[in-house]
Amino acid sequence: MTPVQILVTILLAVVTSAAGTWQVQDWRMGKKLAEQAGLHQADLTTIGNAAAAQARAEQDKRLGLEGRLQSIDEAHFKEFSDAQKNISRLRDRLATADLRLSVLLDAADSASGCNVPSTPGAVGVVHAARRAQLDPAHAQRIIAITGDGDNAVIALRACQAYVREITK
Fold first, then answer.
1. Contact assessment for residue 94 and residue 101, using Cβ atoms and an 8 Å cutoff
2. 89 and 163 in one domain?
């Protein structure tokens, strides 16, 4: 063989060896990339499952809170409607003269000039020393004011219960 043929043969053997090595490296790298892709997919699945579980837990908490708030709202609405009924009954009793509002008078106040007897009458028993009956229109206004106050207290309690439930 001539030196050129030997050189070509050696060069051909080196190129063939390099190509074979390249092919083996490609197989190994492909296998590693496939393993990494599988691990990456498993990690993504685990993360997705954890996120879904957390979303379900948050939704369950939100639904529970909504249920508790609904029951609190119903209780306060019932309390409010009961107070409205009581106020309405009281107004009706005042309007029909079934009930009269009276106030205590100061016995030491000589300027009052009102001499209402302190002895029991035919209508009812008076337990105070001196009393004066209020005009029915004034009594209606007083009942309206106290009714508004009752409504405000009920609304305040409802707001406080809502805030307490939200901040738990």
1. yes
2. yes
